[in-house]
Amino acid sequence: MPTQFNNEIPATSRDQAAALDQQDPFASKRDEFDLQDDVIYLCGNSLGPMPKSVVAKIEHTLRQDWAKGLVTSWNKAGWFMMTDTLGDRLATLLGAGQGELVVSDATGINIYKTLHAAISMQPGRTRIVCEATSFPTDLYMIEGVTSLLENMEVKLEGRDAEHIEDLFDQNTAVVLMNQVDYRSGEIRDIKALTEKAHAVGALVISDVCHSAGAIPVDLHDENVDFAVGCTYKYLNSGPGAPAFAYVAARHHGKFKQPLTGWHGHAEPFKFEPTYRAGAGARALLSGTQPAISAVGVNAGLDVFEGVDMHALYEKGKALSTLLQQLVEQWCEPYGVKLYSPKEAHLRNGQLSLTHENGYAIVQALIERNVIGDYRQPNVIRFGITPLYLRYTDIWDAAHHLRDVLETEQWKEERFNVRQLVT
Ligand SMILES: Cc1ncc(COP(=O)(O)O)c(C=O)c1O
Question: What span, in angstroms and rounded, lies between the C-alpha atoms of 233 and 383?
Answer without folding.
Answer: 10
